[in-house]
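Recall the central idea of this unit: under ordinary conditions, the amino acid sequence of a chain determines the structure it adopts. In this exercise we apply that idea directly, starting from the sequence alone.
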Amino acid sequence: MNTQKSRILSMDGGGPLSIISLVLLKRLLKKEPQLLRYVDVFAGNSAGAINALMLASRDLSPGYAQAVLDQLIEFWAEHFIELTANNLVQNLGALAGARPLGQTESLETYLRNYFFQDTPLANIKNVAITTFQLDSDNRSINIPGGPVDSQVRSWMPRVLHNFKYTHPERLRAPLVEHKMAAFSPRATVLDAAMASSAPPIMFPVYKGHLDGAMFANNPAMCALSQVIHFKLNNLEAAESTDVLKNTTILSLGTGQNPMYVETSEAFTPWGYREWLLDLRHPLLVIQALYEANMLTVDFQCINLLGHDRYVRINPPLQRPVEHNTDYSITVAVALDSAKSVTDAQLDSYLARMKASGWFDAPAAQASGLAVDTAVKVATNYPL
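Accordingly, the structure predicted from this sequence is:
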């Protein structure tokens, strides 16, 4: 039986707060320069999807990994807000509720020119990217609709992935994935990034897709379940417990937001004005839902993997950040929050990763789930 390690790097969404993840990764790399070369699967949502896809498509040897992280930090600190800002007419439309609060046409152009070009998802290392598809019949980013026998036209969460099933003759049964999973080698890396980064109200719907934070702002559990499915169907493990014992997740958050709602009444009669339109806490219910699903994934992953194999780094934000927080302040909070993690804490996280076997198996770029792109893709989905 192949008991090969599976090492997942999972990156939460959070816009400029994702600088926290990137700065912490830089600090970890100073201590373990080869750390990223051992990643088998890069998982991400929204800002985390852009970061994960960038890492999955680049050389991550010590001489280059730091430069990639610096490029991403500069993007979030300096360019993202300029690329997504509305003009005056668009802002008036947003105030009237007729347009989103930002635009992403310029963002797509920037990501294409400077990050991803038109690279197919099949040509990068293994990824699991969350998005929400508004119509399962929509094929605008070249993803399948799921098994025919379970297909009902509807909206649905999707996990875009590029896992290559390299031994179809050894499959236990015809490969059938849940309709949420989308083996999407013909999708582009750019489409995956944009489809995962379209929060409702904030940005336009992208080719029929919304932000994956609708169901998994922390994509760690989605990535873990996809790895289990791959291992079992590719005959690399006999049971799911074998996969769990040999899987480690490094999960990078975008800060624990010190938000809470104090109520003193047995029944608090709030309507949409308090939940959505309060100028002190705009879109409060959306923020609460996003953060709740992150905590739920933590609960699930810790129960399945334990603290030794689910290494979550998510420092408290140094001050609350909401949708109406000034962008420059948000960037400053991200930098301060990343600095609040001590070297001793990082050493502790690395010790847990080492104990789990993160560095035991060969680097993923040479072997593991990240199969060379020259290998013929085998799947039940037509290409």
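The first helix runs from residue 19 to 31.
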